[in-house]
Amino acid sequence: MVSSTLSFASVLALLGVASAAPTATSPIYPPKTTSANFRLVANVTANDLSPSINNFVLSSYHVGAGEAFAVLVENVTATTGRIFYVNGTAIDVRYSTSNILSDEGSLLFPAGVSINPADASGEQTVSINSGEGESGIGMTQFPDPISELRVVGGDGFYACNNALPFGSAVQVLSKAQGQATPAGCADITLLPQCSEGSGLAHPFGQITNCYADVAGIDWTYYSTD
Ligand SMILES: *[C@@H]1O[C@H](CO)[C@@H](O)[C@H](O)[C@H]1NC(C)=O
Ligand SMILES: *[C@@H]1O[C@H](CO)[C@@H](O)[C@H](O)[C@H]1NC(C)=O
Ligand SMILES: *[C@@H]1O[C@H](CO)[C@@H](O)[C@H](O)[C@H]1NC(C)=O
């Protein structure tokens, strides 16, 4: 009697261990931490450019006073790329009406991320212009297991080697629902890497989920969705 009770208990224990172990049906996601500031790192999900743009960081390509396109640049030092934050009230974040800002200039005035209207070929470039940017551009929220930049009503991002006014650059574009990525462009996600701030206080800066080291995430081990 005693020994059969024990073996039943051991079987339960074994089942418990088995169900806690990662399996194909219980995905594990890369661990997140939180920060008020982050850089955005491109994770190429299809059709990488040559040379590769994987782990390039989001920066700005100035085309006029206070006007810049969002581009990707190779990450050279820990300070390459712009520092961003989510601006809004908790309600703004909850209802996806927050905006994404970055400080710029010696006076550290805000520049915001916005999506430009589609051109004749349906392409929507992304700007980082002085001002508030655009409501509805934010970071994915719980229960999404991944933290990434997203546009309400959009379908992610892609990047292309484009000719810009002062020379070519890897330009970031926003994808509309149902839009195919143009040939020669790479599908990307923009993942937040926790960062120090600019030093300026942000009264409506929200704490955001971010990754300690995006380039170090082993996607053969972690799931996306
Ligand atoms: C990052 O890229 C890898 C390789 O393409 C892919 O397997 C993974 O799903 C991507 N993760 C995210 C969150 O985009
Ligand atoms: C850029 O590279 C530096 C130096 O290797 C590294 O510490 C940092 O995490 C990278 N930054 C981003 C945003 O990937
Ligand atoms: C930041 O968010 C607050 C709260 O919604 C808003 O009042 C303010 O205008 C925003 N600031 C900028 C620069 O967008």
Task: Give the topology, please.
Blueprint: H1 2-20, E1 33-35, E2 37-46, E3 57-64, E4 67-73, E5 84-87, H2 90-94, E6 99-104, E7 109-115, E8 124-130, E9 137-139, E10 149-151, E11 154-164, E12 167-176, E13 186-195, E14 205-206, E15 208-210
Explain the overall architecture:
This protein has 225 residues and is mainly β. Helices cover 11% and strands 42% of the residues. It has one domain (30-216): Trefoil (Acidic Fibroblast Growth Factor, subunit A) (Trefoil). The protein has two helices and 15 strands. Strands 2, 3, 4, 5, 6, 7, 8, 11, 12, 13 and 14 form an eleven-stranded antiparallel β-sheet that branches. Strands 1-15 form a two-stranded antiparallel ribbon. A two-stranded antiparallel sheet has the order 9-10. Bound molecules: 2-acetamido-2-deoxy-beta-D-glucopyranose (3 copies). It holds the Pfam family DUF7907. It comes from Oidiodendron maius (strain Zn). InterPro entries: DUF7907 (IPR057229).
